[in-house]
Known about the structure:
Layout: H1 9-15, H2 24-31, H3 37-50, E1 69-73, E2 76-80, H4 82-95, H5 100-107, H6 113-126, E3 138-142, E4 155-156, E5 160-164, E6 170-178, E7 182-188, E8 198-202, H7 204-207, E9 218-227, E10 231-238, H8 245-262, H9 267-282, E11 289-296, E12 299-307, H10 313-317, H11 333-341, E13 348-358, E14 361-368, H12 369-374, H13 376-387, E15 393-401, H14 419-424, H15 430-436, E16 439-447, H16 451-458, E17 485-488, E18 500-501, E19 505-510, E20 513-522, E21 526-531, E22 542-546, H17 548-551, E23 562-569, E24 575-580, H18 588-599, H19 616-625, E25 631-638, E26 641-648, H20 655-661, E27 668-670, H21 672-675, E28 676-677, E29 680-681, H22 684-691, E30 699-707, H23 714-717, E31 718-722, H24 729-742, E32 744-754, H25 764-773, H26 775-786, E33 788-796, H27 798-804, H28 809-814, H29 828-834
Parallel strand pairs: 3-26, 12-17
Antiparallel strand pairs: 1-2, 3-27, 4-6, 5-6, 5-8, 6-7, 7-10, 8-9, 9-10, 11-12, 11-16, 13-14, 13-15, 15-16, 18-20, 19-20, 19-22, 20-21, 21-24, 22-23, 23-24, 25-26, 25-33, 28-29, 30-31, 30-32, 32-33
Helix pairs in contact: 4-5, 9-26, 13-16, 25-26
Amino acid sequence: MSQDLAEYKDIIEQLKPMINEPEFNQVLSQVASSVAKQKRFLIKMELKRLARPCLRLIDLRGQVAGDCREYTYQGKSHYLDDTAIDVFERQVRLFGEYTMGVYEAVKNTENSYRVIYQKQREEAEKEGTNVKPVQPHHAPVFRFGDYAKRSEERMNFTVNIEIFTELNKSIQASTIDVSVSGLKVKVASEHLFKVGERITVQFRGLEGEYNIDRKAGVGYTIVDVEHNKDEQKLNLHKNDELASHAFEDFFEKFIHGNKRRYKVNMDNTLNAIKVKTYEQYFIPNFTSVPVYIERINGINRPKYALINDSNKDPLYFWSDEQFELRLGYMLNHHRIERLANATGIQRETIVYAFNHIKDEKVYFYSASQEELFERPDLMKVFLGYGARKASWRVYKVQITDMDLEQTHIPLSLPDSISSAVKRQNQPPAPRLMARLKNIHNIALITDITDEVGTQNYERIPIRRGEISQLKVFGHPRNKIPPVVQMFRFKYHNQRKETRYQLRTKVLLNFGDMTLEGSSEDVSTRGLRVELNDFFHGEEKDLVKLSFPVLQKVTRKYELVNLPYRVKGISYDRNVLHLQAVTDAVNKTAQRFFDELIKNNRSKLKAFKEEEEIPGIGTAMRNLYASNVINTAFFIRKEGIEFLPDAMVTSNPDSRLNNLLVFGAEQGNYNLHFLYSTYGVELDFIQYTLKKIKTNNKPVMREIFVAFDPSKEHIDEAVKSRFSDQFHGDKERKNFISQAKDNGQFIAVKVFLARAGRPDLEQLQSELSYVGIYAIHRAKVLEEQLWNIIGVGDLIDVTDEVMIRHHFSLKEIQNNHQAPAYHKVKTTKVEHLLKA
């Protein structure tokens, strides 16, 4: 309901039962006799709108403060809580059927988080925003693979030393840890040192106990300087050209004989375990698809894709009727070239796509945002027509450079620890590197399609006569793009058998219902099915499948009512993992798919569990982990609170980065915008993680942020609202306009999943090493890591949101400019320095 009619809410509610009655106009005149005729007409139009039949399904999971369950009305399944069911049934009685008025009333119940938030915000504004400040939600930020590999063991050992500078100045210091080829030392902050400076060290604290020449020092070069308030720490590397073999022998024996007494320095190994564990939480759960771009003779083409159970859908969309992956239609040479040659934030784009099926053949259409802005005459036609099709998709495509040296991430341990460690530290085989030699970039594809955005595009008016002009965005079927090979992320949850891509029609019988859908992948003993509607059963239920299309290719087997057991159900209850029931009577499914796979192995695309080149999946995983474009975050449970534990990115110069560093300490990000807005706490993270299971796909929500860093306090500088918390497009567009006028508008797609369990086998060498010398620290770290309950991804979708709200290209480009920060108050010291 618009703001103009809000004051007539009671009148509208009173007239709902009369909207379809013959005497409606007479009753309207009586009830609204004191209302002006113009307003009375608007009330009538509003009631007509509310009385229109509605086909939308309602899913309130994660949007209300109540437990939702399946609720069926006229054969359609909704997910509602008790409050919503009561409102639904009451409104249906008023209108006589399921209408837009019923839909809107159910979406605006008193326990809706959006409604609660709106009331809290209004109350806070009435009280002058004098609200209790929310606790900061900071977390350290780092990069995957960002830990040191030691070439030798380092021992925690403190001994007095004397440093002689190049000018022969004597400085007293002490060691923190020592190794054969390096030292870490602590020295007073009053002395000046610089990286690259050569110094001489004499070990005064060892001279009395060991036979060391008091006159002969050891030469070192300063490789790093860490400044603190009262002291500084120097990292030193021994100068090999001046090294004494006698000294090296002495130090090697000294460390080997005393490392249990003084303890080996574990900092880098503990850090490596922590970083690798975060990586294992993230990689199987993120929804973007990394695609590896090959460049040969100046031509770019997608070569490999790395998939998990959460990111396969964007690839399935590009499968044709022969189940061949045609991803090259979207990632064609010209689009890749433009992105690869761009700089900064311009190395990304939005690609809109849909397909058209004619004569059982799939025809693909796609257009990037640049291509649409170049054809303004067709932009509205493409967006308006495409969004009306069930196949409508919106993708964010990003590209980043990479270095083939990143294929190898060695352990944090030196080779000398064991033969197993030495073997794991070996670089990839030449055969593997030869296969990857032409890979120069990684393209990242993220499906950002959602209901709110699609409805925006659907409302764009189009003329039927213009639709034929969209053929310029069609991809010719006679120009087939190169094959893209897929590999799975390999972790402990590998399948017992190879799964193959096969999309074919499926009929699922359960109880007295028959649901249509399609298979996504198959094996001899099971398959994954995506249904067109909600599944009403539970795990372990028995269902029966029929395969009408596959039945046409076989007379040997009857593919009707084959028994399967439900092994898993997705969060939105439309994707099922099924296991074939095989016994003396029921063997048809296993025999048929076994024969189908054997006879068509060259045609069916397998998820590469058994790699044709050992290590290629790990190499590609390492490449992507070293170049994470977006921002990952990890949530830990601390008592009853769900708090940010760490964040990861390889892109510190992004627009999103400017938001995340605001109000955060150095080396940290601030997730304030996800936890609070207008001083009111949000519980999206807590509620979502309580409701979803480990194997569910990540939940996606879109959040709008008004960022004005000229404000000093974060509650004034950062104001956020989920896009489904607005009353309509007009209110959303006003929010965007005000945000960009006062600072900057930022829209973020938030993906949140429940964390699984790390694969300890991948960490065994480092865990065993820590267990020998620092078992207590290993236990503390393990406890911290097992408290990680959630993993998420933040995707900047600002440009796409502004496009769908019809902002101009110039306005979108201007919004890329970083807004001005607040002026820092000048201190007395700074006044003196300027004097």
